[in-house]
Design brief:
Radius of gyration: 18 Å
Largest sheet: none
Structural class: mainly alpha
Number of strands: 0
Distance between the termini: 65 Å
Strand content: under 5%
Oligomer: single chain
CATH topology: Helix Hairpins
Order of helices and strands: HHHH
CATH class: Mainly Alpha
Number of domains: 1
Helix content: over 70%
Shape: flat
């Protein structure tokens, strides 16, 4: 019988999540940079948003890149675990994960531009 039920399962899941965040923070410079940017710009997103929807879009868009970076880093670690040799499928998986991060960065820039640039003109 599985003993990890109820609160025990939630506590273990919380621990695994913290371990994943810590590992990504320690081993991935891109994650640290995206996290620093999101942390620094979140107050500006709250300040510059004129209403709840704008604030939510500005702030949420900042946190998409580090979230996707977590997934990308997990994918890269898994590909590296499979084997150190170059393989076209491992390379493709890593490139696709990188592309996902790039697209979220573009989306963040687009959200901020669409909300804030019209105010400048």
């Amino acid at each position: 019988m599985n003993q990890n039920r109820g609160w025990r399962r939630l506590v273990k899941a919380w621990g695994y999540s913290l371990a994943g965040l810590g590992a990504c923070f320690r081993h991935e410079a891109a994650f640290r940079q995206e996290l620093a940017l999101a942390t620094a710009l979140t107050p500006l997103g709250i300040w510059w948003g004129r209403n709840g929807a704008e604030r939510a879009l500005l702030v949420a868009s900042l946190w998409w890149p580090p979230i996707v970076e977590l997934l990308n880093s997990g994918l890269e670690a898994l590909a590296d675990r499979i084997g150190p040799e170059r393989h076209r499928l491992s390379g493709r998986a890593k490139d696709m994960g990188s592309a996902a991060v790039f697209m979220t960065l573009c989306l963040t820039a687009a959200v901020w531009a669409l909300i804030l640039l019209p105010r400048a003109f």
